[in-house]
Amino acid sequence: MGLFRMLLLAVAIEAAAVLLLVLLVAALGPADPAAAQALAERLGYWFGPIAGFFLCLGGGWLVARRLTEGHVLRGLVLGAMVASIDIAILVASGATFQPMLVFSNLGRLVAGSLGGFVARAVAAE
Questions:
Q1: Which of 1, 100, 107, 124 lies deepest, with the highest CB count within 10 Å?
Q2: Contact 79, 56 (CB under 8 A)
Q3: Where are any strands of DSSP class E within the chain?
Q4: In terms of pTM, does the model score above 0.85?
């Protein structure tokens, strides 16, 4: 998978995490928009990092599954792309720094690498 397609996948992963949060709040949340936004902020604190991890894990596998070498590196690059998009969104929105942001984006790097590792292990069988 080329770098442009990986960038598209990284954007899709970040968008999918947000969409999943919106769907979760729509399904479980209150009808009042202010209360729904407050719920989204509370859920997003934990849901965003968890969803980002699992989506990057799958994405890391996806970008590395047909490679003959460099599986883990390709997954790491995807994770870095997703983390970069996440950081750019946070900076643009003026979000205050929280330690969870560091763990969340490190999780994306680890998950992308792990996805590449899984792809390499499957390819070796």
A1: 107
A2: yes
A3: none
A4: yes
